[in-house]
Design brief:
By secondary structure, the chain is α/β, with parallel strands linked by helices. The chain contains 21 helices and 32 strands. A hairpin with a 4-residue loop joins strand 17 (393-397) and strand 18 (402-405). The longest helix has 30 residues, at 2-31. 52% of the residues are buried.
Length: 734
């Protein structure tokens, strides 16, 4: 009997233990905090005062003469009445105190201008309490976002066309402020200098942004060119993933991406592009006289979060920017009844309502259909196309075989042939024979200097280069320290379909991106090596070669063409990939192999670390081209609404390449030039941007905030969501 009760007692205790564990687990789940974006039903400030700004723009003289009487220095005064801002803060604080009585929470931001709401760190149960409040319209879990990552003014015809119509590059974009939501900026770059003593360069009076001052971004970083700079990282900090050393708690760009995009749109004209000691011409932004305001919400180590991005957008609009450029996209399609209903797109809808033209990268998720990452009709989505400038390199073997490759490198001496020596055949006695990565040429101490000196060193390019574990820069340093005449990289057969951008090289060099061409090189080399009789020792390196060099640009008449990575339509309305009745992308612009400014602290591309310029590709590079061109249109037609600017760009876009044939679109990631066909509207939207024609569009098609609201209300089942985000009912639009 005693033993029986003992068994029952143990069983009861086990059951209790299970229930206690489950209860504890549930309690832990309920106590896990996350960032939520809370929207209130009361309309934001912009819905009361935003129309005033649009009406004021209508009275600006067409020639822009009224823009000359502006402040000479950036203002520290907010465009919105500070008393109104503090009142909104008090409303938000009061709501949180009443809803979460005595409970712990952390408010990160108050959104005052474009949306009335806040970002707060709370538990799921607390978020549920907030959602039940009658003042609250929407509670959304924060989500992550990412970046979408010279000669183009000439390719777009700006010097003789659009710039000439605006009085030359000296005045192109004057009086217009472009706000960049990106990774920050390097204020020391000459592309952002305001040193123009020959002509006044006043800060536009309608802009009231400020410049943060930190150790990384000292006083004096801003000027009449760079008129505002802030950073937003509260959501990232609450997650414990913000690295102040790497990411910089300031507007300073520790990535490089933001510096690149800002200079592409509005960088100064005629800045010499010098990389690895070689001159690649002069760079200019599309609107070199425009002003730049930076709102850093993206970071190298983790990307970014919607709560921070919405805060940046809200502040940019409040400061008075004319254009917002976003080279960022969400990491996933927003859930819910339609992709348009997310905090970022709804904040941008309010931005358009107050007259701000919004440009966004389409995304680098092509070439599959419905791969768009920019969804809403009020956002001008830009795809990426190749322009006509290319950099090609080649190596000529001793058997007269020529192999093409990439590399922004000088060539070997003209007419001279140099002996080829493989890295694995140039090891010294201390090198480990079991080191499977020694052929990547990362450690100079592994090689025999006398064997390599004066010869071309052959190194391997493996997946480790793709992952950043090995670098071209380190291999070049190895070759240089060994006094090599040059270096050639062959592609590891396991690196399949990887698209390689041209890489700067300070010594003669080339990368052979094709595994098949790499086999040809290795077969020639191995067949030319002589070994001693009865031994495996090499007695003579018989293969020779010369490197042509890849510094000089070549030009193609088949440009533009749509790049394989550029996201494609149709625009997905929801996560089920139903089609939205919207043409996306809106347009395409140069986005491949774009030279632009680079941050000295930029780490996004290892090969350009420490350089002042970098060559990058992506829809991230295409979007700022359109932002800059939109500034030229806004300068010429200050009364144009955002949709009128978009219409001017779209209705004048080109459907043909420079040969007069149809624009082609690449259809595959692997061997994209062998898999292409004529582009459709789902590849290129209205076509390739025509900068000069956009300044004389003739008829323009305008759309208002009411039109966008009618569109949203027309989505089946959208009425409650529209009401929650905007305060509008379906009957309001009828």
């Amino acid at each position: 009997m005693e033993g029986r009760w003992g068994i029952v007692l143990v069983a009861v205790m086990l059951c209790l233990g299970v229930f206690l564990d489950c209860s504890f687990a549930q309690e832990n789940a309920d106590n896990v905090t996350a960032v939520y974006i809370v929207t209130l039903k009361q309309a934001p400030t912009s819905h009361f005062y935003g129309e005033l700004r649009v009406k004021q723009d209508h009275h600006v003289k067409r020639n822009g003469s009224e823009r000359m009487n502006r402040l000479d220095k950036p203002s520290n005064v907010s465009r919105t009445d500070k008393r109104n801002g503090s009142y909104i803060d008090r409303v938000h604080n009061s709501l949180l105190k009443r809803a979460l009585r005595g409970e712990k929470y952390l408010k990160l931001y108050s959104y005052r201008y474009l949306i009335n709401g806040f970002a707060v760190l709370v538990t799921p149960m607390q978020a549920e309490k907030l959602s039940r409040r009658k003042e609250v319209s929407n509670v959304v879990l924060d989500f992550s976002v990412r970046t979408a990552t010279t000669h183009t003014p000439q390719f777009l015809g700006l010097p003789e066309g659009a710039w000439a119509q605006e009085g030359g590059f000296e005045t192109a974009g004057e009086g217009i402020v472009i706000g960049f939501i990106d990774t920050g900026i390097d204020p020391t770059h000459p592309s952002f200098s305001d040193n123009t003593p020959e002509k006044p360069y006043p800060v536009p009076q309608h802009f009231s942004g400020i410049c943060e001052v930190t150790r990384d971004f000292p006083s004096g970083s801003c000027n009449r060119k760079l008129v505002g700079a802030r950073h937003f990282a509260a959501s990232a900090i609450t997650r414990g993933i913000f690295n102040a050393t790497q990411d910089y708690a300031s507007p300073y760009d520790g990535d490089g991406h933001g510096t690149h995009t800002a200079a592409t749109a509005a960088g100064n004209h005629g800045i010499a592009v010098v990389v690895a000691g070689h001159l690649f011409g002069n760079a200019s932004g599309m609107a070199p006289r425009s002003h730049i305001a930076v709102y850093k919400a993206l970071y190298k180590s983790f990307g970014g979060f919607a709560a921070d991005v919405v805060a940046a957008i809200d502040q940019a609009a409040q400061d008075g920017v004319d254009i917002i450029s976003l080279s960022i996209t969400p990491n996933r399609r927003p859930p819910g009844i339609a992709t348009f209903f997310n905090p970022i797109d709804m904040a941008l809808l309010s931005a358009v309502k107050v007259g701000i033209f919004v440009v966004q990268a389409a995304g680098n998720t092509g070439p599959s259909p419905k791969s768009m990452s920019s969804f809403s009709p009020w956002i001008f989505a830009v795809g990426a196309a190749a322009h006509d400038r290319m950099y090609s390199n080649s190596i000529v073997l001793g058997n007269n075989m020529t192999i093409s490759g990439v590399g922004l490198a000088p060539g070997t001496d003209t007419g001279a042939m140099y002996t080829l020596v493989s890295a694995i055949h140039a090891l010294n006695e201390t090198a480990s024979v079991n080191d499977m990565y020694v052929s990547e040429c990362q450690d100079v101490s592994s090689f025999n200097h006398s064997v390599v000196q004066g010869n071309i060193l052959i190194c391997s390019y493996s997946i480790r280069f793709v992952l950043g574990l090995s670098t071209i820069k380190q291999a070049l340093e190895t070759a240089d320290n060994l006094s090599a005449a040059g270096v050639v990289f062959y592609m590891d057969p396991y690196v399949i379909g990887f698209q390689l951008n041209p890489v700067p090289m300070s010594i003669p060099g080339i990368i052979i991106p094709s595994p098949d061409d790499s086999k040809i090189l290795l077969q020639y080399y191995n067949s030319s090596v002589e070994r001693g009789q009865g031994t495996k020792n090499i007695v003579k390196f018989g293969g020779v070669a010369s490197i042509s060099g890849g510094i000089k640009a070549n030009f193609s008449h088949t440009a533009p063409k749509i790049m394989f990575y550029s996201a494609r339509g149709p625009d997905p309305e929801d996560t089920f990939l139903n089609n939205a009745d919207i043409l996306k992308p809106n347009i395409v612009a140069p986005g491949n192999f774009i030279w632009s400014a680079w941050s000295l602290g930029g780490t996004d591309s290892v090969e350009f670390q420490g350089e002042r310029f970098a060559m990058m590709s992506g829809t991230s590079m295409a979007a700022p081209h359109i932002a800059g061109l939109a500034a030229l249109i806004k300068q010429r037609f200050p009364y144009f609404t955002p949709s009128a600017i978009g219409s001017a760009l779209s209705t004048t876009a080109s459907l043909n390449d420079r040969n007069g044939g149809p624009i082609m679109a690449q259809r595959a990631y692997a061997n994209p030039d062998l898999n292409q066909s004529p582009a459709t509207p789902f590849d290129m939207g209205s076509g390739f941007v025509n900068a000069t024609a956009a300044l004389d569009p003739g008829l323009v098609f305008d759309s208002s905030y009411d039109d966008y609201m009618s569109f949203l209300c027309g989505i089946n089942g959208s009425s409650p969501v529209v009401l929650n985000y905007t305060g509008w009912t379906t009957s309001t639009t009828n």
